[in-house]
Structures are given as C-alpha cells and as structure tokens.
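User: For my dataset I need records formatted as: sequence, then structure tokens, nothing else. Please produce one.
Assistant:
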Amino acid sequence: MSEGTREGGLDPEDQKIVTLARSTRARVAAAEGAAVRDDTGRTYTAAAVALPSLRLSALRLAVAMAVSSGAERLEAAALVSESEPAPEDLAAVRDMGPDAPLFHAAPDGTLRAILIP
C-alpha cells in the first residue's frame, strides 16, 4: 500500500486513469469519479449517479460500462473520492480483475492508497 504520494508517483498509464477519474468527477461536480482500464488498454470513466430513483457509485458504474462494452478483464481501477471505497466497489473490481490494483485518490490528486481487491 502506498499512501500520501501525489499521482505523479504512478506509472503513466496508472496516472492517466487517476487523472481521468478526477476530471470526470470535477466535470459534473459529483461526489466521486472513477476510471477503469481493461486488458486491451481501453478506459472507461464514470461519475457517481444520485437520482431519486437511481443511485450508483462511480466505480461500479465504470465497471458496468466496461462490461457492457465487452471488456473481459480489468487491469486497473481508480477512484477519486473523499470517502473510502465501499465493499461493493471493491467486489465489482475483483469480479473483473482479481489482481487489478485500485488507486484511491483524494480530489486534489493525493494518492491515499493502492488496494488489491
């Protein structure tokens, strides 16, 4: 686990998904943003959805978008949020990438943790 480092400490591909998650969150002023990268290098981004009839976390939505686009496996995931990832978020990543790291970052880009779901 790595804590308290800036996103610049990651390799370029991992830094990219953290940056995508941050920009997705900021673009719609959502509580959280997420990005995932599949085994072919494609990325999928999502922001949390909070409608009266539908609530989805950013990470679960990003995983769902990857699956619905035909992804078979995840290489990595990033979550930008003030709060810790929910167990259901970790489970969704684990379903598609048992050894995929999850980069949890604060909204300012500070890397809080690298988790292996």
